[in-house]
UniProtKB/TrEMBL annotation:
Domain CREG-like beta-barrel: 34-200
Keywords associated with the record: Glycoprotein, Secreted, Signal
Protein name: CREG-like beta-barrel domain-containing protein
Organism of origin: Dendroctonus ponderosae (Mountain pine beetle)
InterPro entries to which the protein is assigned, alphabetical: CREG_beta-barrel, Split_barrel_FMN-bd
Keyword Signal listed: yes
Main location: secreted
Family indicated by similarity: Belongs to the CREG family.
Subcellular localization, as worded in the UniProt entry: Secreted
Signal peptide: 1-19
SUPFAM superfamilies (UniProt xref): FMN-binding split barrel (SSF50475)
Matches recorded under Pfam families: CREG_beta-barrel
Any single GO CC term annotated in Swiss-Prot or TrEMBL for this entry: endomembrane system
Record's keyword annotation contains Transferase: no
């Protein structure tokens, strides 16, 4: 019991030290980046998300020209964040067929898929249940490029089952190239984030801090 108390005290001390150094006020592991740092929030949501909604322009006869929404697994990196939403697509899928004709998409990811919003008592539609909407184009990565292997590793590390998906389905690694980014994490409307600010946001300290507190929680339970 005493050792658990010491670990908690050390965790609080280390958290405050890192937060001050990084300029990020995060009182607990379940709290978010500061609400006025929208680029950081966008990166945080994408990195925390295992899946997202993707809207395409439908090519199906019954819905041709309509927006069409599907769910896709995503990863921008398992332990580190690139900010790039990597997807594993196939032309056999409706979404894959749509982007062959029109590569413009909008993706949306939300912390509603984590325990953050339920812990806070936020409905998924509540603006405080943070979400990011990214519009851009889907790009298929050639399997001879360095980025292909970066994206493949990001996806396979986060979603190991993908390695077993059928070879004859033609799955390929793709990414979303952002052109417009909106973040909604508070009342008053969505905030626009430039692509440059999005990719320049430094998520390293937050990821390291989250990983540390998960490890501490495990140690405390075991103690």
């Amino acid at each position: 019991m005493k050792s658990a108390f010491v670990l908690v005290a050390l965790a609080i001390y280390w958290q405050k030290a890192i937060s001050i150094e990084a300029g990020l006020v995060r009182n607990t592991i379940s709290e978010l980046p500061p609400l006025d740092q929208y680029a950081l929030m966008a990166r945080y949501i994408i990195h925390k998300s295992d899946w997202l909604s993707i809207a395409t322009i439908s090519t199906r006869n019954n819905t041709k020209g309509f927006p069409f929404v599907s769910l896709k697994s995503v990863s921008d990196g398992n332990t580190s964040s690139t900010g790039v939403p990597y997807l594993y697509l196939t032309d056999m899928d409706v979404t894959g067929q749509d982007v062959l004709e029109n590569d413009k998409v909008t993706i949306m990811a939300s912390l509603a898929q984590s325990d953050y919003c339920t812990t806070k008592g936020y409905d998924p539609q509540d603006p405080r249940c943070a979400k990011v909407m990214i519009s851009g184009t889907v790009e298929k990565l050639a399997n001879t490029t360095e980025e292909f292997f970066v994206g493949q590793k990001a996806l396979f590390d986060r979603h190991p089952e993908m390695k077993k998906w059928p070879d004859n389905h033609g799955f390929y690694v793709a990414k979303v190239n952002p052109s417009d980014i909106l973040v909604l994490d508070h009342f008053g409307g969505a905030e626009s984030v430039t692509v440059e600010d999005y990719f320049n946001a430094n998520l390293t300290n937050i990821i390291d801090l989250d990983a540390y507190f998960r490890a501490v929680a495990v140690v405390i339970v075991m103690a």
